[in-house]
Automatic annotation (TrEMBL), chains A, B:
PANTHER family: DECARBOXYLATING DEHYDROGENASES-ISOCITRATE, ISOPROPYLMALATE, TARTRATE, ISOCITRATE DEHYDROGENASE [NAD] SUBUNIT ALPHA, MITOCHONDRIAL. Belongs to the isocitrate and isopropylmalate dehydrogenases family. The keyword Magnesium applies. Signal peptide: none annotated. This is Isopropylmalate dehydrogenase-like domain-containing protein. One of its GO terms (biological process) is isocitrate metabolic process. The keyword ATP-binding does not apply. It comes from Dovyalis caffra. Residues 8-333 form the Isopropylmalate dehydrogenase-like domain. InterPro entries: IsoCit/isopropylmalate_DH_CS, Isocitrate_DH_NAD, IsoPropMal-DH-like_dom. GO terms for cellular component: mitochondrion. Its cofactor is Mg(2+); Mn(2+).
Amino acid sequence: SSAPSPITATLFPGDGIGPEIAESVKQVFQAAEVPIEWEEHYVGNQIDPRTQSFLTWESLESVRRNRVGLKGPMATPIGKGHRSLNLTLRKELNLYANVRPCYSLPGYKTRYDNVDLITIRENTEGEYSGLEHQVVRGVVESLKIITRQASLRVADYAFHYAKTHGRERVSAIHKANIMQKTDGLFLKSCREVAEKYPEITYEEVVIDNCCMMLVKNPALFDVLVMPNLYGDIISDLCAGLVGGLGLTPSCNIGEGGIALAEAVHGSAPDIAGKNLANPTALLLSAVTMLRHLELYDKAERIQNAILKTIAEGKYRTADLGGSSTTTDFTKAICSHL
Amino acid sequence: SSAPSPITATLFPGDGIGPEIAESVKQVFQAAEVPIEWEEHYVGNQIDPRTQSFLTWESLESVRRNRVGLKGPMATPIGKGHRSLNLTLRKELNLYANVRPCYSLPGYKTRYDNVDLITIRENTEGEYSGLEHQVVRGVVESLKIITRQASLRVADYAFHYAKTHGRERVSAIHKANIMQKTDGLFLKSCREVAEKYPEITYEEVVIDNCCMMLVKNPALFDVLVMPNLYGDIISDLCAGLVGGLGLTPSCNIGEGGIALAEAVHGSAPDIAGKNLANPTALLLSAVTMLRHLELYDKAERIQNAILKTIAEGKYRTADLGGSSTTTDFTKAICSHL
Ligand SMILES: CC(C)[C@H](C(=O)O)[C@@H](O)C(=O)O
Ligand SMILES: CC(C)[C@H](C(=O)O)[C@@H](O)C(=O)O
């Protein structure tokens, strides 16, 4: 923290195991001398009328100001009259792209080797419009909205990501054979953007076929871009290939270059406070945040230390079949920095 | 065919490899002395105004009359002003449930062992309404429709199937945390039906989590029931676990007990007419048709002969890594009857 001008980043430790895994990130960042100062915000215990949710207005202002943040798992309180915390964040901060790198962890065996995919999900519209109604009893309708603007925006992000990360191919995932107009517009937008990136191969894959191909041979894919719901489904499927949401990072990109990295697994209230949680997903998400800040050296060093610790297998948390505590796992990572 | 009263069944050989794999079914059925007479119908070469598609009215009348049929792959001709052949069949015959058993084939190795699942998909509404519009330029909307009637109907089919097939659990797959009203109505309907089947365990699983669990450990599931699009996605994912659509059967159930079994893979025009196609999916689909007709002995005998032939591995078609022709593979099956 003696670096010239430390970057301020918002930290939402979140609920359940959130504070423990956030502590792990803080320790690893300190050990790696990452020039970041955290501005911590917790979910409120009453609805903030300005956000219509339990998220405080101040916490959103913090992300808007800092333009970069890290978020642990948040359990939306049960009840009516308020919005889900995750959806509020996406909406209020206009987090239009959800980026999830998904790769096999060396030494951690699953049925799949050498997975190395990026899923990029449109995060603001589609099936998540929240517009549903029942006019005739027993007949309910839900509106899916696809816009040219949001489709171009996420497609552009995907191609730009591919280009700047040495990726060769972008696959647009769709069901335009059935939803010709909505998914058709999504594809049309992707095609338009593809023309600006002649060095990137572009293809279109129907979602059902995509899922079949992913489980048969995930090496067929590189970068995948898709509307909201398909992204929700496929990003979890891909996480499953390499071990699950406890091991995969996620980062949300907003207008004007905001980046909010997050662990997308649950808050695991059953093991909260017991020093048993696996901080890997939040740590790897924090690494994506560092890359976004162009702190590539720090990102690389921390990622290598995490992967090395998992590969060695001496310190693994219970979810990975080990018996290490969160703090011992974290110490092992620090020792590998 | 000297049996007292043979059953008449409609056969759509379909396009591409369709006629070859249909021929394989005919030969196996003959060798097994199945008391079925086929009434063959081909896709027409012009639009029939009564069906608004290339399917002839007579062919639909044939299924309506016989109440049972088998269908090879159909390639919907390109062009405007007509409906997809598959969707026309589902609509005109009110094929409300698509049932796909998905199990590991002994001796045919994939990444997964002992898969044994049934996916049951609502087949008439949901995201397949065909209702899409663009009012504002660049903003397209699509309507998803969920009705209580269709949800109860498919849920009832799923629980009845579980009960009569010795299955223990039905999982309803949904995204009701986002689409609270539409998927909420689907779940409510499933719960209502579940109460009538206290001997069957009922659970609800969010689709993204379901896909992650399926790739991590498919043994967690038994019978899955879900709205149209989720069924489209998950049935293909499950097929991928055991080798793909070339190996998995499918049967559509309509009002009044109509059953139309079908191979859901493509028509593979590149290998059509070359005696290279794998007839397994159509054969196993024909077996589900026999079970529907309560011809259990014949179904069992034929299924065993197919599985034995694949397990031995001496006669396998190219898609399974062998070099057998369709006819040799078929002969091998007949020799195992
Ligand atoms: C919790 C849920 C609302 C959320 C979503 O559907 O987007 C989650 O599945 C995710 O992927 O972040
Ligand atoms: C070809 C297509 C219209 C169809 C569907 O989406 O239902 C197919 O994927 C299927 O599952 O039968």
